[in-house]
UniProtKB/TrEMBL annotation:
Organism: Solanum verrucosum
InterPro entries registered for this protein in UniProt: Chromo-like_dom_sf, Chromo_domain
Pfam family, one: Chromo
SUPFAM superfamilies referenced in this protein's UniProt entry, alphabetically: Chromo domain-like
PANTHER family, A to Z: CHROMO DOMAIN-CONTAINING PROTEIN (PTHR46148), RETROTRANSPOSON PROTEIN (PTHR46148:SF56)
Name of the featured protein: Chromo domain-containing protein
Coiled-coil boundaries: none
Ranges of residues in domain Chromo: 31-77
Length: 94
């Protein structure tokens, strides 16, 4: 059963003293590509990459569409196709 709650006005913190920004979000930055795969659909094939993001663990890496990531983050692909082989060997040693 719910009961009526009387609030204490002395416990309310004024927000104008705390510098709260309008947007409390931050942008993640991709660190490296961990893996690649091609998913075959009925009429086309979609290339995906597994991306490790800053401030996340390897287990939290996400699969992203390779074409979109090349447009947004071209610096991840500047080392060519063999760049992820060194990454894979580095991760296997960890």
């Amino acid at each position: 059963m719910l009961k009526k709650c009387m609030g204490d006005p002395s416990l309310i913190i004024p927000t104008e003293n705390i510098g709260i920004k309008g947007s409390l979000s931050y942008s993640e930055i991709p660190v490296q590509i961990l893996d690649r795969q091609v998913r075959k659909l009925r009429t086309k094939e979609v290339a995906s990459i597994k991306v490790l993001w800053r401030n996340q663990f390897v287990e939290e890496a996400t699969w992203e569409v390779e074409e979109d990531m090349k447009k947004r983050y071209p610096h991840l692909f500047k080392f060519g196709e063999n760049a992820d082989q060194g990454t894979s060997s580095l991760l296997s040693t960890l």
